[in-house]
Write a structure and sequence with these properties.
Layout lengths: L7 E5 L3 H13 L4 E5 L3 H15 L2 E4 L3 H5 L4 E4 L18 E4 L7 H5 L3 E4 L17 H4 L18 H5 L13 E4 L6 H17 L8 H4 L5
Parallel strand pairs: 1-2, 1-4, 2-3, 4-5, 5-7, 6-7
């Protein structure tokens, strides 16, 4: 979705998932410069220093989110925010927008995209909570509720894009957007299966009955 000649990235976020986003984009595009913002000055400075060494690309810590994404080829969000941190006024022709969760991008910014791809058509994540406990994101109208105005049943998904069933970027002026609206967690299932296999081989640990986790009433 990003232009083939994309060379400048703006990143909002400085955690491990943000770092993984940078590793991904530098693996597939000729990135020469990265600007990073997060609210903690010390954290973003340390992150920028570490990622510069890891990627071999200059990562500069900046003082605001807007400064990070100003006139970049790729704007990436990788935060724990439950409300928008990237806004419509920051979108420029030819940009690719990327987010690791639904709330990070303002709906107005997404509407400016010529192509909007999502991870899954599931409308909202599944919340599991103690009976009677109100989820803060739902109470405050944040989180998944922010993008209810989009019809997820009609949006193209990442697997179809990868398989060539839907078109990606068509020209250098298009604005494209990908949102990981719901994480699949395939990697956790794979690692869990391998750990279980190794534990059984070595005869360590204790088997726990599956019905402990599926029964409606617990002792």
């Amino acid at each position: 979705l990003a232009r083939e000649d994309s060379s400048v990235v703006g990143l909002i976020g400085s955690g491990w998932q943000a770092g993984a986003q940078l590793m991904a984009i530098t693996a597939v595009r000729p990135i020469e410069a990265i600007r990073c913002f997060s609210p903690d000055p010390d954290h973003r400075a340390r992150f920028s220093e570490v990622m510069t060494k890891r990627l071999g690309v200059d990562v500069q810590a900046v003082d605001s989110a807007e400064q990070a994404v100003a006139d970049v080829d790729v704007a990436m969000c990788g935060t724990s925010s439950i409300q928008p941190i990237f806004f419509a006024d920051w979108v420029r022709p030819g940009m690719h927008l990327s987010s690791i969760k639904r709330p990070e991008m303002d709906a107005g910014a997404i509407r400016k995209a010529d192509r909007f791809i999502i991870h899954s058509r599931d409308a909202a994540p599944i919340y599991v909570a103690t009976r009677g406990l109100e989820h803060p994101e739902r109470q405050e109208g944040k989180g998944a509720a922010l993008l209810n105005e989009f019809d997820f049943d009609t949006l193209p998904v990442l697997p179809d894009l990868a398989a060539g069933k839907v078109e990606g970027r068509q020209n250098d002026d298009e604005v494209t957007c990908f949102i990981n609206n719901i994480g699949m967690g395939y990697q956790f299932a794979v690692i869990g299966a391998l750990v279980l296999e190794r534990a059984r081989e070595k005869g360590v640990g204790r088997e726990i009955p599956t019905d402990w986790f599926t029964e409606a009433e617990h002792p």
